[in-house]
Amino acid sequence: MPNFICTTCGTQYAEMEQAPPSCPICQDERQYVKKTGQQWTTLEKLRLTNRNSIKFKEPGLIGVGIEPQFAIGQRALFLRTSKANILWDCLSLLDGAVVAIQAMGGISAIAISHPHYYSSMIEWSRAFGGVPIYLHAADRQWVMRPDKAIVFWEGETRTLAEGLTLIRCGGHFEGGTVLHWADGAGGQGALLTGDIIQVVPDRKHVSFMWSYPNYIPLSASAIERIVKAVEPYPFDRVYGAFWDMVIEADGKAVVKRSAERYLRAIGGGGQT
Asked: Alpha carbon 202 to chain centroid distance?
């Protein structure tokens, strides 16, 4: 039986004879159903029309993304360190990129920022021998393909290896997570944020939303929680969810200034 993939959010479902009648992730107010209605594909069909591209980002970090753009359009990040190799966020498509990643040492774990990027996480795990997939337990309900490889972690932080720390920020999703890479940006630290702290097109600011496509903002308290969560960690660079959405320098100050700007805009005072 096929594992159907939602073409709007890219989530792969457990095996079933017929496609589900709807996608709960897209029915949620943070996502949407296209005007053309709910549509599905499979990994086999997706391989006929799309491919993964691999792009160097900085020493130890490589981007992997689907071309042409599929579903939400995020790119994953393959992070290589002396302690562990992590796939940050995930993709719906597996193809020859898996072979290339294997040749660079493979991955020892997968960690994902939030449910919109769960995609084909089980397929990716199995392609590398069933490596663990770290998801925050607060988002357990959004897993559409359960598997023994999933590790639901709890609390506010989880160390994956020396210098690699998952930080629960909440916000966009209750379990919304970022990854702190202590050795990133030439040893000044980097933050891999997915949509939880979203790098915006001017690449000078970040923003925060409950729903990006439906333009639903977060509350002042949620923004303050996010800033407080990352405050203990040094970082100069911020990698958002999409190609070229990177704050190259002064990332920690950018996050703070952006939060203050956001709070002023919603009348929250801007004190973090």
From this structure: 20
pLDDT tens, position by position, 22-38: 999 999 999 999 999 99
Q: Across-strand partners of 207?
A: 198
Tens of pLDDT, residues 111-128: 999 999 999 999 999 999
Using CA atoms, how far apart are residues 165 and 84, in angstroms rounded to an integer?
12
Q: 0.70 cut: is pTM over it?
A: yes
Report whether the peptide linkage leading into residue 68 is cis, meaning its omega lies within 30 degrees of zero: yes
Predicted confidence (pLDDT) per residue in 213-268, tens digit: 999 999 999 999 999 999 999 999 999 999 999 999 999 999 999 999 999 999 85
* First vs last C-alpha separation in the chain: 51
* Tokens 């203990």, residue located: 232
* Residue of 127, 170, 120, 166 whose CA lies nearest to 143: 120
Residue owning tokens 């199995």:
126
Q: How confident is the model at residue 272 (pLDDT cuts 50, 70, 90)?
A: very low
Tokens of 120: 């084909």
Q: How far apart are CA 270 and CA 63, in angstroms?
A: 34
